[in-house]
Amino acid sequence: MADTFNYRIDHHGSLVRPAGLSTADPEAVDAAVREAVAYQRKLRSTVVTDGDFPREDFRSAVLDGVSGFRRTDETDPDGLVRWVAESLPKANGPLLADRAARLAELTVIAPKASLPSPAYLAATTFRPGLGVSSARELGEALAEIVRAEIELLVANGVRLVQLDNPLLLAQLSTDPADPGALSFTDALAVDALAARLDDRPEGVRIGVAPGWAAPAEVDRARAEQLYAGIGADRWILPFDQGTQAELDLVRALPDDRDFCLGVVDATVPELADIDTVMFRIDAVGEFKDLEDGAVSPSRGFADVASRPLLTAEDQRRKLVLVETIARYCWGNEF
């Protein structure tokens, strides 16, 4: 599948916000986004995002833009505010497309947008007895909204769309964790609806990030079911710990899919040894064509705006390391 649109130097989308930035100040957000675009170009990324600066967390593009959800006073262990679905959602207008169009005007580099997957939202917001009959019904309604938004994003110049479902990888172990309100099969069916883009203009990729860390053990049959179940072009996979499970995730990927390896740990300030990272990538090269690959940090740097994982300077060092690794792999051919 090798071509010239693999976006070798990638990142998940969220960046550390400038100190004091408030989503309630649109002018300040717009200025911060312009600075973030210049920052990413300076770092020679092959994709550009708005850093998620206009949003509270990685789910907000959907939760803030549709009806049917209620915010609660509870938070989960990751600092995410809990929302519950009280009716089937309806979109109140474009979710990210308007901002994406402005982003495209700021750069010649490929604009990227990240969205929460509908299966993830359904699994985490469904509560029985609150007006929605099942998590599957909720997920399918969300999938139609997300699919329509992806079409609009692409029409507005976005070339890489990433769907985030942090729950999927935990279900690939031989003893899978409790999937919550959605079964593994239902989750795949729901996210497949959203990832379906019948007409892909040249250079467009629809990607899925199925989790931030590989499970201790990967069931090969379930991994193959994952990749077969969702027709994404690109899979953004954790690859920063050097485990057998990380290799197994890549090995199970069909040869007609792109892969982006999260080779740099976005959760700790220490920098990985480049020789160690290259040794891991060389192992992938024994069974995959690296021309179908890209590299990135392991996850977003601030998926919750108020809880960045690193300082801005540590983030810069991590992104520079990703670029360096890409040049070790592919020279200057991006």
Task: Explain how this protein is built.
- It is a single chain.
- By secondary structure, this protein is an alpha/beta fold.
- 36% of the residues lie in helices and 17% in strands.
- It contains ten helices and nine strands.
- The chain has helices at residues 26-42, 60-63, 97-105, 118-125, 135-155, 184-195, 220-229, 244-251, 274-285, 312-330, and strands at 47-48, 66-75, 81-91, 110-116, 160-164, 205-209, 234-238, 258-264, 293-297.
- Strands 1-4-5-6-7-8-9 form a seven-stranded parallel sheet. Strands 2-3 form a two-stranded antiparallel sheet.
- Strand 6, helix 7 and strand 7 (234-238) form a beta-alpha-beta unit.
- Helix 3 (97-105) runs parallel beside helix 5 (135-155) and helix 4 (118-125) runs antiparallel to helix 5 (135-155).
- The longest helix is centred in the middle third of the chain and has 21 residues, at 135-155.
- 45% of the residues are buried.
- The mean pLDDT is 92.
In short, what is this structure?
This protein has ten helices and nine strands. By secondary structure, the chain is of the alpha/beta class.
Task: Kindly list the characteristics that best describe this protein.
10 helices; alpha/beta; 17% strand; 9 strands; 334 residues; seven-stranded parallel β-sheet
